[in-house]
Amino acid sequence: MMDLVNSVLNFVVPPASLVMLAFSWPALYFINTCEWMYNSFFGEDMEDKVVIITGASSGIGEQIAYEYAKKKAHLVLVARRETRLWGISENARALGAKSVLITAADVVKEADCRRFITETVNLYGRVDHLVNTASLGHTFYLEEATDTNVFPILMDINFWGNVYPTYVALPYLRQSKGRVIVNASVESWLPLPRMSLYSAAKAALVNFYETLRFEVNGDVGVTIATHGWIGTEMTGGRFMLEEGAEMQWKEEREVHASGSSVEDFAKLIVSGACRGDPYVKYPSWYDIFLLYRVFAPNVLQWTFRMLLSNLSARRTSLIGTGRPLLDSSSPRMQPIPETSSPPRQPSSESSSPRRQPLSGSSSPQHPSASPRRRMGPVPLQQQMD
Q: What is the pLDDT of residues 164-173, one digit of tens each?
């Protein structure tokens, strides 16, 4: 009997829901617009509030720090690259930040998270906003990765690097009726090639904060920010690898730089957080693909296969995988001949002592340890801070 009921509902509920949504959409849009206008005029005043920002040494984290500085907040900037934080702290003060505390920490270590949260509470007595922006991406096909030690590193940074700071800061956020802001990505539900592990980590992250929103029951706000392709240091020609006490960099200037403005996205995040928005989406038109994913998944698959079919004629970045670059216009296993360029030396930022590998893994070999190889443009790249 129950099988019969479910079979009937499978046919009735989806079209009925779409019809109801179509008729109610104008009213819902009007209500959301009125709510947005009200919250814009009577949003949270961040002057003298305390904001902790992880992954603040570059990209979205850096720009978010500047936006909060304009609102005259007290900033706590957290990253591995402490040398970068000094310059960012000076910029933030010039923009209006009441004070800036910088600290070098590894967000995938609970002890480090407890340290910078405790330092913040001891200095300011409160935490109002926790902004998690630390993330790490990749642009390789799963089958081309030979060093699986990079897998847990990607998951650690993109998932646990957000969970641990939130876990430690939650009691203080409850006291101040504060807010957690998390930098997610449209890849958490939109399928794109060469981002399998990154997408999986972001999907887990979004589900974690969706559940947390119910658990805190309004005592702590949760704002989930999702973005498309953002132009940061990665799309500007740098790839980030997790190795040692700081982020190690390898420049590949042949990489095609594309993406939306990270400054615009940072402004949207901070404005949305101050309004109390549960979601910030940039750009918002990506949401239309959700309907296709639910009601016409085959159409979505066919569309993306057609749009991304030209990728087969391009080369892929295998930085951090332990393999040479492959020319994907020919059979996968045919390597590209090496150039005569000398090995790439690590940047000055990578001169700090190496820390111990993350639990259960060892750090991948830095790409500068092997001869540099030429590569073509990589059009699909996620932001990494």
A: 999 999 999 9
Would strands 260-261 and 247-251 be described as parallel, antiparallel, or unpaired? unpaired
198 is catalytic: yes
Q: What is the pTM of this model?
A: 0.71
- Lowest-confidence region among 4-8, 67-71, 371-375: 371-375
C-alpha closest to that of 241 among 117, 89, 93, 369: 369
CA-to-CA distance for 199 and 120, rounded, in angstroms?
32
- Residue of 198, 279, 282, 286 with catalytic role: 198
Q: Could you give the CA distance from residue 349 to residue 183 in angstroms, rounded to a whole number?
A: 24
Tokens 């310059």: give the residue.
87
The bridge status of strand 238-242 relative to strand 247-251 is antiparallel
Query: Which residue in the block uniquely carries the two structure tokens 């200037």?
Result: 253
In contact, 165 and 132? CB cutoff 8 Å: yes
Question: Tell me, what amino acid is at 138?
Answer: H
Question: 283, 300, 302, 282: which is closest to 291 by C-alpha?
Answer: 300
Sheet holding 50-54, edge to edge: 99-104, 74-79, 50-54, 129-132, 179-183, 221-227, 279-282
Q: Tens of pLDDT along 260-286?
A: 478 888 999 999 999 999 999 887 777
Could you give the count of Cα atoms lying within 13 Å of 331 in the half-sphere of its Cβ? 2
Amino acid at 334: Q
Q: Give the separation between CA 185 and CA 271, rounded to whole angstroms.
A: 18
Structure tokens at 92: 């933030």
DSSP element (H, E) containing 38: helix 2-41
Q: d(Cα 156, Cα 135) in Å, to the nearest integer?
A: 9
Model pLDDT for residues 49-77, shown as the tens digit of each residue: 999 999 998 888 999 999 999 999 999 99
- Tell me the average pLDDT across 318-341: 40
- Give me the pLDDT at residue 142, please: 86
Q: What is the mean pLDDT of residues 104-122?
A: 95
- Average pLDDT for residues 116-129, to the nearest whole number? 96
Question: From CA 356, how far away is CA 248, in angstroms rounded?
Answer: 15
pLDDT for 379:
35
Give the burial class of 56: count Cβ atoms within 10 A of its Cβ; 0-12 exposed, 13-18 middle, 19 or more buried. buried
Name the token pair of 235: 């799309």
| Nearest residue to 85 (alpha-carbon basis) of 69, 64, 101, 109 | 101
